[in-house]
Write a structure and sequence with these properties.
Length: about 160
């Protein structure tokens, strides 16, 4: 889009996108409420609705907006026990880190998986219905996996998010 304020720059970081303050405000509003009507979003950004629609489209086309997702209340689904589980991979399995990460991500109850630098290799966010389900999850899927050297589980008491 030649008229788009979103531009790809070619500096030290290839294909880095340059955003202006209006783009940042649009992104902030969409992160708070992805279902915000375009006319309300345009009003908050101080631009015309057609301009706002074009900017959102340009942000999607540039890959900055990767999708719009539902934020689900896990407790309403009966998932009341949350844990952050650190996972260290055996040295013999280090050459399979991406495959291990994909396997961890596909496990039931896993909300997200992060590949880390440092003492641990992965951090998993897991949601289960009961402490027993969490214990069984660890025993069945992690402790019995020969690629995993050890795990450390931290229970989450509350998830403090901005604006909630």
């Amino acid at each position: 889009m030649p008229d788009s304020p979103i531009a790809r720059t070619h500096g030290s970081l290839p294909n880095r996108v340059r955003l202006d303050e209006t783009d940042r405000l649009i992104l902030k509003e969409l992160m708070a409420d992805a279902r915000i009507p375009n006319n309300v979003l345009a009003s908050k950004a101080g631009i015309a609705p057609s301009t706002c629609l074009g900017r959102v489209r340009a942000l999607r086309d540039a890959g900055i907006i990767r999708g719009f997702h539902a934020s689900v209340d896990l407790e309403a689904l009966g998932l009341l026990v949350y844990a952050l589980i650190s996972v260290r991979v055996n040295s013999q399995a280090r050459n399979k880190m991406l495959a291990i990460g994909q396997r961890l991500r596909a496990l039931p109850n896993v909300q997200s998986v992060f590949l880390l630098a440092g003492d641990q290799d992965f951090l998993m966010h897991v949601a289960c219905g009961t402490p027993k389900e969490l214990r069984d999850f660890i025993a069945v899927h992690l402790a019995s996996d020969p690629a995993i050297a050890n795990t450390q589980t931290n229970l989450v008491f509350d998830h403090l998010t901005p604006g909630h």
